[in-house]
Design goal:
Layout lengths: L1 E9 L8 E3 L2 E4 L3 E2 L12 E5 H9 L13 E4 L11 E4 L2 E8 L8 H6 L4 H4 L1 E7 L1 E3 L4 E3 L1
Parallel strand pairs: 5-6
Antiparallel strand pairs: 1-2, 1-6, 1-11, 3-4, 3-10, 5-9, 7-8, 7-11, 8-9
Organism: Geomonas propionica
InterPro entries: MoCF_Sase_C, MOSC_domain, Pyrv_Knase-like_insert_dom_sf
Protein name: MOSC domain-containing protein
Length: about 140
């Protein structure tokens, strides 16, 4: 399965929308340098498909890449169908899928705007096995 990266997004803190940036550096067993979700745990990097964001746009929401607090926005890969343990190459980096979806303990701003949010059901999480630089346009290879 081959897709591409649409956007790379970071935020200083957890629980806030992320801002698209020109590139990010992934550090092995840490996550994205400078991102609030990085650290020594299983959810170092979050990914969400552009196709999932499009579902929310179809409901009339003005949302874009990073608004669901995802680090990597992809296109052309059915992320939620990937099994735990699947390996994903993002450009020169290598990730391992550690979790599909998440429990949403606190309703985010998106949920209140739309009455729903795609990240808990369709976002995936991964840890970094091989670091490097990732930027929009890079290939996503499962």
């Amino acid at each position: 399965m081959i897709g591409k990266i649409i956007a790379v997004n970071i935020s200083k803190n957890k629980g806030e929308r992320k801002t698209p940036v020109p590139e990010v550096t992934l550090r092995e067993e840490h996550g994205i340098v400078g991102d609030g979700h990085a650290g020594d745990w299983h959810r170092q990097v979050s990914l969400l498909a552009q196709e999932s964001i499009a579902k929310m746009q179809a409901l009339g929401l003005d949302v874009k890449e990073g608004d669901f607090a995802e680090n990597i926005t992809t296109e052309g890969v059915d992320l939620v169908s990937l099994p735990i343990g699947a390996k994903i190459e993002l450009g020169e980096t290598l990730l391992e899928v550690t979790q599909i979806g998440k429990e949403c303990h606190t309703r985010c701003a998106i949920y209140y705007q739309a009455g729903d949010c795609v990240m808990p059901k369709e976002g995936i999480f991964a840890r970094v096995l091989r670091g490097g630089v990732v930027r929009p346009g890079d290939k996503v290879v499962v």
